[in-house]
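Final report, section 2: Outcomes. Of the targets proposed, MFS multidrug transporter is the one most frequently requested by collaborating groups, and we therefore present its record in full.
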Amino acid sequence: MSFTQSNGGVWGQKWRSSPLFIVSAMAMALFTDTFLYAFLVPILPYVLENRLGLDVSLTQSLSFSLLSESAITALIASPIIGHFADRVPNKKGLLLGSLGAALLGSIVLALATSAFTLFAGRLIQAIGSSCIWTVGYATIASNVHPEHLGKTYGVISLVVAAGTSGGPMVAGILFELGGYWTAWSSAFTILIADIIVRLLMLENPKSKESTTAYGDDDALDPENAPLLSEAGSVLEPEVTGWKFYIYILRQRRFVCGVISYFSFAVLISSFDTTLPLHVRDVFNWGSLPAGMMFFALQGPGILLSPLCGWLKDRVGTRWPTTVGFLLLAPIMWIIGMPGDDRFPWINEGNRGIIIYAIGVTLVGSVSCLLNGAGTIEATITIDEVEEKHPGIFGPNGGYSRALSMVSMSWTSGAFIGPVLSGYLAEHVGYYEMNCVIAVICALSGVNAFFNLTTTKLHQNRGSECS
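The predicted structure is given below as tokens.
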């Protein structure tokens, strides 16, 4: 969508290519992606048991198999997408392709009347999701000034939380009030809005992606690029292929960020397959209250994520991430008690319901401290390495490849989370499952304390803008 004016310019080029609009467009894309991913959760039992006609005993196993499919697909697709995304200066084509995949996958899912079409639709959706998470976050990193990095990722986390909580909440409410196709109408409405925004976006030719971190506008032109950076460092040979991943995995804070993001994903995704069935079996709740519990899990991020982003700009990522994980450990332990006969005092009257609801809300609130743990560390690591070794990641930088690894860590956790929690809840017990997640949180807190830094984010990148 590029309307040419009589003077030869493109209609609205200034605001359509502004960093604010580009970041807003990526936020909309990430909202749509997370909305579509979580949308199916509360209506999945109906789809499996009524539309597909499967036995009720298969609901648990097929639920976490379907929800984990996206993670497996992304684990394979993300590094491939990241490799090619860093090879092209203009990423709009990849972004539009991801939108097309999301639309096609949603249509197939909505029309599915067999297990094959259901899994096929989810597969198509997952490919588009991998693209938007890798390319979208790289586009954001290329358009954000250093002093706003934490706040921006905080707002993006807010949008992602809104999509993650809004998906199941809207699906559950509309399904309860109007039925299956009324619920799906909300998903297609959001997709249409995303199509409009994505077509309006024009990539900014003056973004960081098309200039160097040292203010040299000619650095991307091999004929005009200087042999020395402003700091007097010789431009180094580009690290390509598998050597890039080996090099980046030698960076301690990057690895810690990836592990933290993995643990965060395990924590959050563990609710996807266990929460709806647990509240149904223990509290006799249906789709509507289950959807409200997902809102309690993700909703606090709407208010707290920007504040946590501001905090990370001020004090770095070490303390927020450490405190977040260590607080989540006892909360997850307590959440496992309601409905367990070994804790009769907690199940008297409505006490178990109250404790469970408060516990889930606290998880949503405290986990805001973990938002952006992987993406911030990846962005800062790439900037630090490129500052010390100009040109090492090529003319288009290494954001997409680094962030593809962050995406892989998240999706690995999103795969292991439902599988681990579903298996433990079904074969061992819901309480034991929560104890395992609590241990993971405690260990992740220790890891963050020893391997992340307390340096302010704008200090890490401040030399780039000087």
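The domain at 13-204+236-464 is CATH 1.20.1250.20 (Growth Hormone; Chain: A;).
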